[in-house]
Design goal:
Elements (H helix, E strand, L loop, with lengths): L1 H18 L17 E6 L3 E8 L2 E4 L9 E2 L2 E4 L2 E4 L1 H6 L8 E2 L13 H9 L3 E5 L2 E7 L5 E4 L1 H20 L5 E6 L5 H13 L3 E7 H8 L11 E7 L4 E9 L2 E10 L4 H20 L7 H18 L4 E10 L3 E8 H7 L1 H6 L1 H11 L8 E5 L6 H10 L15 H14 L13 E2 L4 E5 L3 E6 L4 E2 L1 E8 L8 E7 L9 E8 L16 E8 L5 E7 L4 E7 L12 H42 L5 H15 L5 H15 L18
Parallel strand pairs: 1-11, 11-12, 13-18
Antiparallel strand pairs: 1-2, 2-3, 2-4, 5-6, 5-7, 8-9, 9-10, 13-14, 14-15, 16-17, 19-22, 20-21, 20-24, 23-26, 24-25, 26-27, 27-28
Helix pairs in contact: 4-5, 6-13, 7-8, 14-15, 14-16, 15-16
Bound molecules: adenosine-5'-diphosphate and magnesium ion.
The site of adenosine-5'-diphosphate has 22 residues, from helix 7 and helix 8.
Length: 655
């Protein structure tokens, strides 16, 4: 077992590298490292690249000397510009030629409701191309380019590759890339494609919290069974994940988050504060001045960073207002905390939920790993410590915005084959990105597997038929967070036909129970089974995840067509079913009325019983047959009187 000991030792080394700040003298750089596999954290706001060499991980600075590169991409005269330069360009042409926060679009369909929602918020134009969201950028010369999210991500990955190559003095062609833990198969595939476009062979796609845990050496044998919470507060999002170390692997117990909570929001509060201050002091509103707002935003982010290390900061911008008026103010940490008080407090809800979902008590946690630039904020660290009852020692804060890239580089080293005894990290758990629901009567949906559920996930729910003596049900499977079917995306439809109608004598079974099981497997493929227990009839449907038809998922055109057809079918189908059921209901009501009211064996009651037996023997009778039987009964028992329409009133989900 010498090899295992060697692994533990090198991992310890790697971890001490993180603690010591990773400054590497020039002569020790990894110029000659063979098989270098980069570790890349492609974030919503900042990206980071690292490489393992000479016994430790090195975070690689970009051409500006920064260890983090803004995930901003701009059209710059026929080529794409990435990083600081792109972010700067936003000042000149806000919303036209500059793209950021594009990770939300990766691996999604244009019609997905979250894409539709994000479109109203994103400052650039998102257009539909073959069912996939694309970004429309306008170059300075008026040229228009339409870019896929993969191309934009590729530009960022290419920049990280270039950064590493400039530093290492040689070409690098492989990487391990970290993505959010809840990224599904399509999203992971999109990142892999983006790597391909950038000339990088993406050898592993690893979930961010797992990379963070690896950075802290929790994949060594000593850590087996340790329970860890990764609290990742970045620029746009908060992700909290509970993991347990399992013999070099990690078992993700639960994950929760907030897709719109992070550093950009904190900056905005500070920006608003100064906009108001300028209004009060100078009677000017700068909120409509794109260039001034950009300069203010940049300065506010800088001030925020400074306040993580000091208690107050000067905020100075020369000639911010026209007429050459400068902004020159002091901002204190206390003011900053007050401006963001509610936002900071909001970070605790996903933490509480993750603990509850994982079934863990505070005392069960061995380590807390704050990740993401915004966990550098002292107040955020304090809230985390307070939550864990002041247990300082278990909260590990160390260059939190570099941790994920660091861990990815450690995994990169295993992948490069330096380390033969290391188990591969391929079989990482995945999570469902969007809720899977079943449509019920009236266009509502019943969620079956909630978003962010750990995969594989399975749930069985008993629905009931909607109409008395219904002999077929359609089970429409939807994806999305809307409460009605029309707010979600139709994934597929399963029909269960030829089910025997429920018996009239047993009111409880008149609405027949249909058992529906939805299972989402590790790859995100959805398997639906509907069964009528009484008759043993069942049908199955599998919806395979991934893009395009070759993977079996429906194209947007197909889905639109299906939605139209389903709507048209329903109108006709509903009319026929309704007329048949109305006739049946009248007959049933009349039978019950006449058998219940009369005591003896009158001609009327005998006919009613006979009619009932006929009903049981003819489950598939037509509307005309029921009308004929009713006529016979009326002849014996007198004319039908308006029946009270029976409703189940049980509040169950009707299909
Ligand atoms: P991403 O969300 O893209 O993964 P990061 O984890 O790097 O990116 O987080 C970026 C956010 O962290 C930005 O809003 C940035 O302003 C913020 N941030 C970085 N450093 C600090 C700091 N010292 N103090 C406060 N916030 C910081
Ligand atoms: Mg991040």
């Amino acid at each position: 077992m010498a090899t295992a000991a060697a692994t533990a030792a090198t991992l310890l080394l790697a971890v001490s590298g993180l603690a010591s700040g990773l400054v590497v003298p020039a002569d020790e750089r990894c110029h000659s490292t063979d098989n270098a596999v980069l570790g890349i954290d492609i974030g919503a706001t900042y990206s980071c690249v690292a490489v393992y060499c000479k016994g430790r991980v090195e975070i690689i600075p970009n051409d500006q000397g920064n260890r983090l590169t803004p995930s901003w991409v701009a059209e710059g005269g026929g080529r794409l510009v990435v990083g600081e330069a792109a972010k700067e360009q936003a000042a000149g042409s806000p919303g036209r030629a500059v793209v950021h926060d594009f990770m939300r679009l990766l691996g999604k369909k244009f019609g997905d409701d979250d894409v539709q929602r994000e479109m109203t918020r994103l400052p650039y134009a998102v257009v539909d191309m073959e069912g996939k969201p694309h970004v429309r950028v306008e170059a300075a010369d008026g040229d228009v380019r339409v870019l896929s999210p993969e191309e934009i991500a590729a530009a960022v990955l290419a920049k990280m590759k270039e950064t590493a190559e400039a530093h290492l003095g040689r070409t690098v062609s492989s990487a391990v890339v970290a993505v959010p833990v809840y990224f599904n198969d399509a999203q992971r595939r999109a990142i892999s494609d983006a790597g391909g476009i950038a000339g990088l062979d993406v050898m592993r796609i690893v979930s961010e919290p797992i990379a963070a845990a690896v950075a802290y050496g929790l994949d060594n044998a000593k850590s087996d069974g340790k329970r860890v919470v990764v609290f990742d507060l970045g620029g746009e999002t908060l992700d909290v994940t509970a993991l347990v170390a399992d013999n070099g692997f990690f078992d993700v117990l639960a994950t929760n988050g907030d897709g719109h909570l992070g550093g950009e929001g904190f900056d905005q509060r500070v920006v608003n504060h100064f906009v108001d201050l300028i209004k009060r002091k100078h009677g000017r509103d700068i909120s409509g001045d794109g260039r001034a707002m950009h300069r203010l935003r940049r300065e506010c982010e800088r001030a925020k960073h400074a306040l993580s290390a000091q208690h107050q900061v000067r905020v100075e911008i020369e000639a911010l207002l026209d007429g050459g008026v400068d902004l020159s103010e002091t901002l204190t940490r206390a003011q900053f905390e007050e401006l963001n008080d509610d936002l900071f407090a909001r970070t605790m809800a996903p933490l509480r939920k993750t603990m509850a979902d994982a079934g863990l008590e505070k005392g069960d946690i061995d380590e807390i790993i704050p990740v993401g630039g915004s966990t550098r904020i002292p107040k955020v660290q304090q809230l985390i410590r307070d939550y864990f009852d002041g247990k300082k020692e278990i909260v590990k804060v160390n260059n939190p915005d570099e941790t994920v890239a660091y861990g990815a580089a450690v995994i990169g080293r295993h992948v490069a084959g330096d380390d033969d005894d290391k188990p591969t990290m391929l079989d990482l758990p995945s999570f469902l990105s969007d809720t899977i629901s079943i449509e019920t009567a009236g266009g509502a949906v019943t969620p079956m597997i909630p978003r962010r559920s750990r995969l594989p996930a399975e749930r069985t729910h008993v629905f009931t038929t909607y109409l008395g003596r219904q002999t077929a049900v359609a089970i429409n499977v939807f994806q999305g967070e809307g409460s009605t079917a029309k707010d979600n995306t139709l994934l597929g439809r399963l029909e269960l036909t030829g089910i025997p109608p429920a018996s009239v004598w047993n009111w409880g079974w008149r609405w027949r129970p249909i058992q529906v099981t939805v299972k989402v497997d590790e790859l995100g493929d959805i398997h639906v089974e509907a069964a009528d227990e009484g008759s043993g009839k069942s049908e199955r449907l599998s919806i395979v995840s991934g893009e395009g038809h070759e993977h079996g998922r429906l194209s947007k055109e197909e889905i639109d067509r299906m939605i139209r057809e389903v709507a048209e079918d329903l109108v006709e189908e509903e009319r026929i079913v309704k007329e048949r059921v109305d006739a049946l209901n009248m007959l049933e009501t009349y039978i019950v009325k006449n058998t219940a009211v009369t005591g003896g064996e009158t001609d009327c009651e005998a006919k009613a019983r006979a009619a009932s037996e006929w009903l049981d023997g003819n489950p598939a009778a037509e509307k005309e047959d029921y009308e004929e039987k009713l006529k016979e009964l009326e002849d014996a028992c007198g004319p039908f009187m308006a029946a009270v329409h029976e409703t189940s009133g049980l509040g169950h989900d009707e299909l």
